[in-house]
Design brief:
single chain; mainly alpha; 3-stranded antiparallel β-sheet; 5 helices
Length: 152
């Protein structure tokens, strides 16, 4: 097994840890204790108020990253059908959308000046997992392109 495949498969362990880890701590006023928010607790809160939005977050934050890791494993182990290979880049875009949304929420909360938002270590882990997944897919794509060009 190559180092590229090991790094990719390690994301199957790291992503669920990142989903449970605190992304941020939010408090309405500095007097009150901060409440930690994770991906899963955020989805749980959304589920009770807006099921459609919760489902969108589930797709972008849970399903897309794991699907991308599995698809990349298929590419690296040569069991992914050739017709699906172009879609890996689109999966990477879907998996990056959640980081963008979290950044917007933090910026909005801090910009309003109401309360306090502190970034938790889970946000860094989650962001690192998404960027690692993106980097691995780009590296694998370049590697595949070189192999195809070398075969011509």
């Amino acid at each position: 097994m190559t180092i590229l495949r090991l790094l990719n498969l390690s994301l199957l362990i790291l992503f669920p840890i990142a989903w449970l880890a605190p992304l941020l701590r939010a408090g309405i006023l500095p007097i009150f204790s901060m409440k930690e928010i994770s991906v899963l607790s955020g989805i749980q809160s959304l589920w009770s108020s807006d099921i459609f939005l919760a489902l969108i977050v589930v797709v972008f934050a849970l399903i897309a990253p794991i699907a991308k890791v599995i698809a990349l494993e298929g590419l690296l182990s040569d069991w992914l059908p050739a017709g699906l290979k172009p879609y890996l880049f689109h999966l990477a875009r879907l998996a990056m959308a959640d980081i963008f949304l979290i950044a917007i929420y933090i910026t909005l909360a801090k910009g309003l000046g109401i309360g306090r938002v502190d970034v938790g270590w889970g946000l860094y882990l989650f962001t690192g997992c998404v960027f690692a997944s993106l980097g691995l897919s780009l590296f694998a794509h370049r590697k595949q392109s070189r192999l195809i060009a070398g075969a011509d």
